[in-house]
Design goal:
Structural class: alpha/beta
Strand order of the largest sheet: 2-1-3-4-5
Number of helices: 6
Number of strands: 5
Distance between the termini: 21 Å
Strand content: 15-25%
Radius of gyration: 15 Å
Shape: globular
Order of helices and strands: HEEHHHEHEHE
């Protein structure tokens, strides 16, 4: 009989599965919002509902040679963390006090949204080069745990 996964392993595996729906050409990211060991919402990175995906029209950031972590405003996609919050809002799910499991460390834009939404903990398995995001989390008291991919 195999050993049961820990809660962290369980929710992170679900975040990886959610990431498989990503339509981003650069990075597949999945996010799962959890409270009291129950899933509230999921999100992955990609173009808004009903719009052409980057896989269909290309990536403007790649075409312009924009490095990772820069010029988020010219990306046609929304980040997984943004989409998980939007999905919860769309269906009337309160997220205050929740934990976010995410395959990647959130950028500073997503970090600000998570702080304002009342997320109390962040668990991620891949680091992202955004020092402002880390500083904002520290200042806000948003607990963060890095669990490297095995």
């Amino acid at each position: 009989m195999s050993e049961r996964p820990t809660w962290d392993q369980y929710f992170m595996e679900i975040a990886r599965t959610v990431a498989s729906r990503s339509t981003c050409l650069r990075r597949s990211v999945g996010a799962v919002l959890v409270r009291d060991k129950r899933i509230l919402a999921t999100g992955y990175n990609g173009a808004p509902t009903g719009l052409a995906h980057c896989r269909e029209v290309g990536c403007l950031r790649t075409i312009q040679g924009v490095p990772a972590g820069e010029r988020h405003e010219i990306c046609r996609g929304s980040h997984a963390e943004q989409n998980v919050l939007v999905q919860a809002a769309r269906y009337g799910i309160a997220v205050e006090g929740a934990t976010l499991y995410c395959t990647n460390e959130p950028c500073s834009i997503c970090t600000k949204l998570l702080i304002n939404a009342g997320i109390i903990e962040l668990v991620y398995e891949s680091e992202y080069p955004d020092f402002l995001a880390r500083a904002l989390r520290t200042e806000a008291g948003l607990r963060s745990r890095f669990i490297p991919t095995k």
